[in-house]
Design a protein that fits this description.
With 475 residues, this protein is an alpha+beta fold. It is built from 16 helices and 25 strands. Helix 3 (103-112) packs across helix 4 (127-136) and helix 12 (397-406) crosses helix 14.
Length: 475
């Protein structure tokens, strides 16, 4: 997915920028970048790969080379960024959290107008540069950003570092978040993808940007450049998987949502079990709620080895990715032996890691292994946010099963997505069989929406039920 952090302060912003960006590290795995602006020195930028290392270790030795009281940092799952631009709008740097499905179409149009693309990565178009070129076609930043909204298919949120402030523009339908923070000493402001980046740096949350809203911060205050649109489709997976437990989206805390989901699932479950555990990290909150709702103890039957595996990197080789996913989790034999175990996980995509976990639980002596998943089955691929590395819907375990049942992976998707329909139950039963589970149950979409606490029309659930607005549904 990706995340970003931008700050402007009355003194050097470098430390706030460095650590604020680091607090978004869980949102992306490919690249990271930082840029600062100083009135005398101009822009200072650095970009590094994160596929084999961590943000802090890549940038810490370079911090003295950054000078200025304003800057942007980004954790990217897509392109090398920030992009630095010199245009009729002035000099500026831009970072994005985006998934642009019609990238090639827009690029062809720009090339036909004799514009050029210079930031190529592995022969691919850099979508952040494409966003910058589209912005440059506007009369001013607001006009240019609006042209981005009107032209792209997918989603795009961005931060723009100018010579006199930072502009934030949230995705037109609010699919990805941007929150404003203010330093508690009154010395500056920040934008971030995650509210959890604020407390330890001395910032307090002011508010979230609305869908399509454009806001500028300077050391003197906050200025709304474009009012938000009315329609919203914030990604429900922020609460299920992406979000750090201490983060809030739309003022709704991630861990609270996970625990509410788990409690409801536990109350509705009639499965007899001895304990529940959570697959770290995103399954833990659901497991804690399930323990309360089902009245069984929560125990750490599987643990993440955080000294060297605090997160999963993404090797290019799929077999190595599978091994990495397995290496970071260590089962606890003393807790698993002779127990009927329920474990909670955030979702099932391909099911490879889950299958390995189940086999290991039985190997370590569990009598029964039951899985409870925080969200409904993923039946539709996401065209709006890149939340998995899947290249096609057929990589989803659900779609493989539908293909095997129907001879067509796209057949009767509405029926397979409908909770407790015969097709749904047949699919879930087959998932359980293929994964080697004693039983498998998914959270209901109604429970997830109730736990989030927003109207369903404002929450994107496309990957579960195929619904959602898109960019053709304007204001």
């Amino acid at each position: 997915m990706g995340g970003f952090f931008g700050t402007i302060t009355k003194k050097s912003c470098v430390n706030d920028l460095f650590y604020g960006t680091d607090y978004n590290s869980h949102l992306g795995t490919k690249r990271a970048g930082m840029v600062t602006f100083d009135t005398e020195r101009g822009f200072s930028r650095s970009i590094h790969s994160l596929e084999r290392n961590y943000f802090r270790s890549k940038f810490e030795d370079e911090l003295d080379s950054f000078i200025g009281n304003a800057g942007l940092g980004v954790i990217s799952d897509t392109d090398p960024q920030p992009i630095i631009v010199n245009s009729h709008l002035g000099r500026y740097a831009v970072v994005t959290v985006a998934k642009i499905n019609n990238l090639r179409d827009i690029a062809d149009e720009l090339l036909a107008k004799r514009m050029h693309l210079s930031e190529m990565s592995a022969n691919n178009i850099n979508q952040t540069e494409l966003v910058a070129l589209t912005i440059n076609m506007g009369e001013d930043f607001v006009d240019g950003i609006t042209k981005v909204y009107e032209r792209i298919s997918g989603s795009c949120s961005m931060l723009i570092l100018t010579e006199n402030g930072i502009i934030a523009a949230r995705d037109m339908l609010g699919r990805t978040p941007i929150v404003i923070g203010e330093r508690e000493d009154g010395e500056g402001y920040a934008f971030s993808s995650e509210t959890s980046s604020f407390p330890n740096l001395g910032y307090k949350r002011v508010r979230d940007l609305g869908p399509g809203e454009i806001v500028k911060i300077t050391t003197e205050g906050i200025e709304v450049l474009k009012e938000p649109y009315h329609k919203e489709q914030i990604c429900s997976f922020l609460w299920v998987y992406y979000g750090f437990p201490a983060s809030d989206y739309e003022g709704i805390n991630v861990e609270d949502v996970r625990e509410r989901c788990g409690k409801q699932m536990g109350q509705e479950d009639d499965t007899e079990a001895d304990l529940v555990c959570g697959i770290p990290d995103s399954g833990v909150g659901t497991a804690l709620g399930y323990a309360e709702g089902h009245q069984i103890p929560y125990k750490r039957a599987v643990l993440k080895y955080t000294p060297t595996w605090p997160r999963s990197f993404t090797p290019g080789n799929q077999n190595r990715r599978n091994l990495v996913a397995k290496m970071k989790l260590i089962p606890n034999h003393a807790i698993l032996k002779d127990q009927r175990v329920v474990f909670c996980d955030d979702s099932i995509v391909r099911g490879t890691q889950l299958r390995d976990n189940v086999a290991t639980f039985f190997q370590y002596g569990a009598k029964e292994v039951h899985a409870r998943i925080s969200c409904p089955p993923l039946v539709y691929g996401c065209p709006f946010i890149g939340f998995t590395s899947s290249k096609s819907d057929l990589e989803l375990l659900s779609r493989q099963i539908i293909r095997d049942f129907e001879g067509d992976d796209s057949a009767k998707l509405d029926k397979y997505a409908k909770t407790d329909s015969p097709e749904y139950q047949r699919m879930v039963d087959e998932m359980a069989r293929r994964l080697g589970l004693s039983s498998l149950r998914f959270n209901k979409i109604e429970t997830l929406i109730e736990a989030i606490g927003m109207p369903k029309c404002k929450v994107c659930t496309h990957c579960f039920d195929g619904s959602s607005w898109n960019y053709t549904d304007k204001k």
